[in-house]
Amino acid sequence: MATHNDLGEQGEQLAVEFLQKKGYQILDRNWRYKKAEVDIIAQKGAVLVIVEVKTRSSNYFGNPQDFINQKKVQLLVEAANEYVISKDLNVEVRFDIVSILKNKQAFNIEHLKDAFLHF
């Protein structure tokens, strides 16, 4: 497997552990709908949280969250709608980004809540 795939999987696991420590219940990982894949679906209280995880080994080309575009946002919104409908949920939905930057052997984790408001 490619090194960037390993880093991505490691980042997703770190994000899960980070969110669990913050009181989030992880409902699903790598949930797919059509062309979209939702990295993490979590719940905190009455809020369903759709989480996109971006992990990078360097910020030379920008911060990890800078690599999410309008098309990705649209796919995630469609997937979230399908998830809510298919599970017959009555919840508020929020879209977050967990940005992870690897610095040598350490990881810097940033949780951006309501991250898609500016799209």
From TrEMBL:
Domain of life assignment: Bacteria
InterPro entries, per database record = Restrct_endonuc-II-like, tRNA_endonuc-like_dom_sf, UPF0102_YraN-like
Checking CDD domains in the record gives: PoNe_Nuclease
Name the Pfam families on file. UPF0102 (PF02021)
Stored NCBIfam families: PRK12497.1-3 (NF009150), PRK12497.3-3 (NF009154), YraN family protein (TIGR00252)
Assigned protein family: Belongs to the UPF0102 family.
**Stated name of the protein:** UPF0102 protein ACFQ5N_04190
Q: Which organism is it from?
A: Lutibacter holmesii
Q: What is the lineage of its organism?
A: Bacteria, Pseudomonadati, Bacteroidota, Flavobacteriia, Flavobacteriales
